[in-house]
Structure formats: C-alpha cells, structure tokens
Design goal:
2 domains, single chain, five-stranded mixed beta sheet, 10 strands, five-stranded antiparallel beta sheet, alpha+beta, Sulfite Oxidase, Chain A, domain 2, globular
C-alpha cells in the first residue's frame, strides 16, 4: 500500500469515527437509551414542559398574553361559512386521541399522546372542500411560521387534531395552549401552535 493510499484510509477512518461519535452524542435527544450521551444536542428527550422539548417558547413567540386571554377564539373559515369556538366549546365537541411524534428540523423527535378535535370535523362544519388547501394562522405577530399551509390529505386525515391536551394534561402555554395542530408526518415547525385561525383557501 502506498503512503498516499494509507493516508487516505486513515483520513476516511477518522471521518467515519467522528461521524459515529457525533451521532451518538446527539441521538440522546431522540432515544432514551442514549440520553446520558446527549452532550451536544440542543434538546434532551423527556425534558421540557410536560416531558416534551420546546424549540420556541410562548415568551419568545410574544404570545404569553394573547394565548392566555379568556376571550380567545379559534376562527374556522370555509368559503361559505365561518365559525368561532372558545376553548370550552372545542372541549365540548367529540374528542379524539392520537399518538403522534413531533420531528424537529433540529434533529430531535419525540412521541406524545395528543387529544382534541379532529380538524376534518371543524372543516366539515364550515363546508370546506375535501380537496382544498388549508391555511393555519398562529397568534404570533411575526416569524417564519406564523402562518402555514396544509394540503388536503393532511387536513382530512382522521389523526390530524386541533389538540387541547398532551399526555393527559391541558396543553402547557409553551406547547401551544389554548390549541395547536398536530398531524402525522409533518415537521414540527408546521405543527402550528397558539392557533388563531383555520381557513379554506380558494382553489
């Protein structure tokens, strides 16, 4: 083996070892068995309000007052009808429980038991089309994800909820109280917290 070939192999082995080590030292944010090795990851599995990590707190989003306001209403708009619900009205509707993960763009993921109203039930109340894109709006006044859109196949999925509870408790303010979206297969940044409006978009 030439000196150049030997050097290349040593270099590649070093890169591989470093990669494995970094994965091991950050995977604790997603896997219980590796939690003790979680030295560099930004979140720790099981830590945070209600045992779930938080990327953006209510204070950082500037919603501590508006999200706790007793006068909060969730507005649901179809092209032909609009309904508004306070939290008690949402809680009085049929509730569904979904066990779903949150997968964050930072690399961590965790699974929780969510309970709330099926989004498709609220959309049906305002006559929304089953093929329409849905826009979700947060109480946040600014930020890249203050509004997001949801394709119809997510919006009408029976597991997609306007969640009011997580792991058997009312949502903590940092997890989206008074209501948030939780849907299967969507990145965490698109699981809109502190919901203010749900709206059917024109085709």
């Amino acid at each position: 083996m030439s000196r150049e070939e030997f050097g290349r192999r040593v270099f590649l082995s070093g890169v591989a070892a470093s990669t494995v080590g970094l994965v091991a030292l950050t995977a604790g944010q997603s896997f219980d068995a590796l939690a003790s090795l979680n030295l560099f990851a930004p979140r720790v599995k099981g830590e945070g309000p209600q045992g779930l990590p938080v990327n953006r707190t209510a204070a950082q989003a500037g919603v501590t007052t508006s999200a706790a306001d007793p006068g909060w209403r969730l507005e649901v708009r179809g092209l032909g009808a609009t309904r508004a619900y306070d939290r008690d009205a949402l809680a009085a509707l049929p509730q569904t429980e979904s066990v779903l993960p949150i997968a964050c763009v930072e690399g961590w993921s965790t699974t929780a038991r969510w309970r709330g109203v099926r989004l498709r039930d609220l959309l049906a109340e305002v006559g929304a089309s089953r093929t329409a894109t849905i826009r979700l709006e947060s109480l946040q006044a600014r930020g890249a994800y203050r509004t997001t859109t949801m394709p119809a196949h997510y919006a009408w999925d029976p597991l997609t909820l306007v969640a009011l509870e997580v792991n058997g408790e009312p949502l903590n303010l940092d997890h989206g109280h008074p209501a948030r979206i939780i849907a299967p297969g969507r990145p965490g940044v698109l699981q809109t917290k502190w919901l203010a409006r749900i709206e059917e978009l024109p085709a």
